Amino acid sequence: MVSSPARQPRWTRRKDVRPSEITAAALEVFVEKGFAATRLDDVAARANVSKGTVYLYFESKEELFKAVVREGLIPAIAEGEKRVATHRGSAADLIRNLVQGWWQLIGSTPYGGLPKLMVSESRNFPEIARFYYEEVITRAHRLLRDALQRGIRSGEFRKMDLDTAQFLVFSPFIMFLVWQHSLACCEQKHLDPETYVAEAIELVLRGLAAPGAPSQHSDKVRR
Q1: What's the number of domains the chain is made of?
Q2: pLDDT value at 1 more than 90
Q3: Percent of the chain scoring above 70 in pLDDT
Q4: With bands split at pLDDT 50, 70 and 90, how would you rate the model's confidence at 216?
Q5: What whole-number distance in Å separates Cα of residue 55 and Cα of residue 185?
Q6: How far is Cα 85 from Cα 82, in angstroms, rounded to an integer?
Q7: Is the C-alpha dihedral spanning 17, 68, 94, 140 positive or negative?
Q8: Same-domain status, 89 and 25
Q9: Which pLDDT belongs to residue 10?
Q10: How far is Cα 193 from Cα 49, in angstroms, rounded to an integer?
Q11: What is the DSSP string of 81-145?
Q12: Is residue 14 scored above 70 in pLDDT?
C-alpha cells in the first residue's frame, strides 16, 4: 500500500517576518474594507502569514490600526513640525511647503485612504476616534496654527479666529481624499490630484491674505 504524502500545513511561520510587513498589509485591507469589515484573517492572508503570527505582534485589531497610524501618519506630522521650526521664508511659502509635504507623504500614498475611514466609522468606534483625534488631528492642527500665527505676526495674513481657521485651511485637502476614496469612482473625467492640490493652495492663501499685503501667488499652478 502506497502511503499518501504528508499533508503540508496551510501556514508556516516565517522566521524573517517583520511587523512592518503586517502593518503594510493591514493598511491595504483597512483602506479597502474599512475598520469594521476588516478581519485579522484578511490581514494575515494579505501579509502571507498566519493569524497567529499577527497576534504575536498585535493583540487586537485596534492595536494593529494604531500601529498603522503611528507608522505612517505620525512621522509625516513630525516632518511637518520640523518644517515649521526650520522655515525661514514667507508664511505663504510655509503653508505651501506643509501642504505639498503632506501630499507627498500621505495624500498621494495608501495612507490617504485613512481620513475617509475615520469620517465613516468614528461614531461606531469611539476609542479609535479618540486615538486618531489626539495623536493625529490635534498635533496637525497645532503645527498649522503655528504657521498661521507666523503669517499674522508678519502682516502677510489677516487677523482671524485660529480655532476656526485651522479647520478651514486643511478641509479642501481632506475632502479631496474622502472624494477620491468614495464618489470619485463615478466621475466621467477624473480630477488631476496635482492640479487640485496646487489650485486649492492658492485659493486658501488668497483667503488668508491681509488686505494690501503683497501677492504671494505662485506661478507653479498647472494650467
Answers
A1: 2
A2: no
A3: 88
A4: low
A5: 35
A6: 5
A7: negative
A8: no
A9: 45
A10: 35
A11: HHHHHH--S-HHHHHHHHHHHHIIIIITSGGGGHHHHHHHHGGG-HHHHHHHIIIIIHHHHHHHH
A12: no
Residue written as grid cell 505639498 = 100
Find cell 501630499 and name the residue: 103
Residue 113 has pLDDT above 60, yes or no: yes
Distance CA 22, CA 48 (A): 9
Confidence of residue 106 (pLDDT cuts 50, 70, 90): very high
Q: Which grid cell is 10? A: 496551510
Q: Print the domain residue range for 21.
A: 13-59
Distance from C-alpha of 106 to C-alpha of 100, rounded to nearest angstrom? 10
Task: Please check whether residues 120 and 87 belong to one and the same domain.
Answer: yes
Map grid coordinates 490600526 to a residue: 65
**Cell output for 78:** 513630525
110 close to 31: Cβ distance less than 8 angstroms: yes
Per-residue pLDDT, averaged over 34-54, amounts to: 96
Residue position matching grid coordinates 474622502: 178
* 21: pLDDT strictly greater than 90: yes
Read off the C-alpha cell for 99. 501642504
Region at 191 (left for phi over 0; alpha for psi -120 to 50; beta for the rest) = beta
Same domain for 33 and 81, yes or no, is no
CB-based contacts of 15, cutoff 8 Å, min separation 6 = none
Residue 165 CB neighbours (<10 A):
21
Tally Cβ neighbours within 10 Å of residue 181: 19
All three cell numbers of 113, joined, read 485612504
The three three-digit cell numbers of residue 34, written as one number: 474599512
